[in-house]
């Protein structure tokens, strides 16, 4: 079973202003001739850093939110992963929600990922689609 390994930049432990930041989006999609694999997230972020992947508005929006303008500097300071643990499908399916199995695996993976060695101080979620399926926060649980 495929589960994308989260991207942890080489300076993630230093963080932004001393805070380790995890950025969570919804899902990857792939080209019809492209295979999904555990290292998919790392491949995508490396392509963003090198400029091979251009025009992806999510990565530009995230970087702009943090007011960075240099890809390598920013992406090497953060952890990045998607809520869904594998590709949602091909590019034409990129706006879909994900299967029940993907969502269930995503919930478990999210909690496991943020509890691993060097957990983030802050998690910034860049997906309204995924947010609806996230595990409830302690604030939500307490009303």
Number of helices: 6
Sheet with the most strands, sense and barrel status: 4 strands, mixed
The main sheet orders its strands as: 1-3-2-4
Q: How many discrete structural domains?
A: 1
Q: Write down how many β-strands occur, each being a DSSP E stretch of 2 or more residues.
A: 4
Mean pLDDT: 92
Order of helices and strands: EEHHHEHEHH
Q: What class, by secondary structure content?
A: alpha/beta
Would you mind describing this structure in some detail?
With 143 residues, the protein is of the alpha/beta class. The chain has one domain. It is built from six helices and four strands. The longest helix is centred in the C-terminal third of the chain and has 16 residues. The protein is globular and about 35 Å long. The model has no long low-confidence stretch (mean pLDDT 92).
Considering the chains and any ligands shown, give keywords for the structure.
143 residues, 4-stranded mixed beta sheet, globular
Concise summary:
The protein is α/β, with parallel strands linked by helices and 143 residues long. The mean pLDDT is 92. Helices cover 34% and strands 11% of the residues.
List strands and helices in order, with pairings:
Elements: E1 7-8, E2 21-25, H1 40-50, H2 57-65, H3 71-75, E3 78-82, H4 100-115, E4 122-125, H5 128-131, H6 138-141
Parallel strand pairs: 2-3, 2-4
Antiparallel strand pairs: 1-3
